[in-house]
Amino acid sequence: MTPDLPRGRACPVVWALLHDLGRTGVPVALERLIRWQGAVDPDAADIHVIAGRDGALRSALAVAAASVTTFEPAEGRRAATTAALALTEAGRAEAGRELRARWARRQVRRLPAPDVVLVQGAGAWRTFTDLEPRIGSARVVVHLHELAVAFARSGLGTDTDRIVQRPDAVLAVCGAVADLAVAHGADPASIRLVPGTVDPPPAGWSAPLVASSSRDLVSIGTAGWRKGTDLATAAAHELHRLDRGTAWHWIGEPEPSAWAWAVGAADPLVRHGASSAPWQVVPAAAALVVPSREDPLPLVALEAGARGIPVVAARTGGLTDLLADGRGRTVDPTDVAGLVAAVRSVLDDPAAAARRAAALRDHVRRDHASGTVGPRWLEALLGP
Amino acid sequence: MAGPPQVLVVGHDASRTGAPGLGLRWVRWAGETGLARPAVWLDRGGPLVAAFEAAAPTQVARWAAPLGRLVPVRHPLDRAPFVLANTVAAWATAASVRKRTQLVVWVHELDHVADRIVRPAQRTALLAETDHLIAEGDRVAAMLVQRWHVDPGRITVVPSFADPAGAPPAAPGPGRPDVVAIGSMSPRKGPDAFVAVLGALLPAHPELRAAWVGGPTTSDAADLVRHDLAAAGLGDHVRLVGEVDDATAWLAPGTILLHPAREDPDPVAVVEAALRGVAVVTWDTGGAADLLRSAGLGHLVAPAGDVLGLARRVDDLLRDPSARQAAGQALQQAAARRTTEHAAPLILDAVVGRAR
Fold this sequence. Notes:
Chain A is an alpha/beta fold. Chain A has helices at about 25-40, 60-65, 80-90, 95-105, 125-130, 150, 160-165, 175-185, 230-240, 300-305, 320, 335-350, 350-365, 370-380; strands at about 15-20, 45-55, 65-70, 115-120, 140-145, 170, 190-195, 215-220, 245-250, 270, 285-290, 310-315, 330. In chain A, strands 3-2-1-4-5-6-7 form a 7-stranded parallel beta sheet, sandwiched between helices. A 7-stranded parallel beta sheet of chain B has the order 3-2-1-4-5-6-7. Chain B has a 6-stranded parallel beta sheet with strand order 10-9-8-11-12-13, with helices on both faces. In chain B, β8 (about 180), α7 and β9 (about 210-215) form a beta-alpha-beta unit. The interface of A and B includes residues 257 and 334 of A.
């Protein structure tokens, strides 16, 4: 897809590579930081977003970034990709890869040469390798948002070590991600912790922060194994047995069909589909529940914190630290009974839940505001 | 027309899974009884090819579908055959057989699988070419009527079946599992739910032994299962057996078959367990639940996705061997006619038009 015309300014040129522009954590985290940079220091860098696939976040990025280039539409694929896949199917994988790479380089031929290349998430590494001949001596920064399973499924092939050894700097959204990078050979001195950020709630948001009588629980994210939708389903069944007044809402894309339940099967979750404004779907939630098996630091947990909504989460990635010191309830991942008990404790003692939510709100405002994280990000991105 | 009817059975592959296994049973039965003269075309090969070849003249496509559909289906039959597409996945290939007496599709899939294989527009075109449909159980029949809008008069319901049980495998002893699941290690069969149920059981049954029988054990899905096993502390309690020649060897008396599939029309593994008097626990996502209810065992069916509910049902059976035995006997009685001997003639009647 032809890129939107660059504005063209004499400042460092950054190519920010993404796997896709879907409204999910990795692209949203980047959009927030680019928007922050545009607002506070627009001359610090011209950031050109290059994504493997288009998506719902394009319009927001088109406003915030200098340009947006995508290789594939949001649905389906272009002829060059089909041809590359056909070559791979025919046993000529290397020819297919080269075809795809040449085509990708052609799509960015009008962009100014980069001074910095940011690989936003391991899923963007393939785009990086496709574009590498055009990157020259640019500074390379990888911002990792993956834990072990997602990392292994990011299409890295044999590059699981190179992705953390090739860059000039590695950014990690939480300590567990940094540990993973070190395990793959990253220089610990090159790693910076750059967590997600959160915008303040919109004006008029009525923060609960008082004991709530709501029995509505909310989980947000693309349904599936990693986000633990099946564990939420299991816990919701048990909660219904114990307290029929509880409603557990799931906001996000449904599972892939291979993971879907038989047509007509009773689903205890109230499904809402994806939303660009998930916090408006169930505005008076008693708690955000994050039952993920693996989640480095989901932005929805920060957003719940900013809104004063109590959080119950699996102890995975950065959630453990986020909710430590009385800021939320955590349970072992995959422990359904433990998840039920934690959720019930929130519902049964809303005053205590509100106190934890207030502590989380203060923490998020202090440590995850764009004004706190943004300067660290920009410094790590542009280098010394 | 002299001699038995000639039937070309078209399969998508010869994997050791439910539908190819049922197709093979039917081909064997037809050949051995002489009531039909079968030949077999397979879009892909697999471990059951030799068994198909031993049962009937068999041809495996040189190229995988859809490329393979450009190559005419070859068969040794001397008349235009009755063509039986064994699964929706083989439907398009079967419809490409130009000279045929009629086309029948044996539907082993429910909605999510069927929709992935054949998109609605293609399905409409194939339905127009199809003379009759065989539904693997009532859930498939309901899908055909309610969601595919097929006239019920074009459908014959033949629940899945198995060969009668021979001598039972040895009873559980040291090293043998208390709980087994049988099926491919794919999300649809619910290996993640199997692990979650076992995780819920472990505190009360610290010596619990379990096995998942079916492959592949080297796949993305298997990696996720291993992740869950490690997270739940079940690594020493659960064996991922992989694909085996005869999964019924794992259905020893006293074992519990846990069937946590997300969508499964009428699983053969459950019928095999029933024929052997092995107790089954499942949730309400397919024909397994219907078989249990027909045996008066609705209390062993949990709502879809209710991991703790399923765990409680397994827990009850683990603690009460007599309840386990009674459940197995009730299932055995309910499944008594779910054998090749009883089901295969119904298939033949549907294929040659005697069912309508």
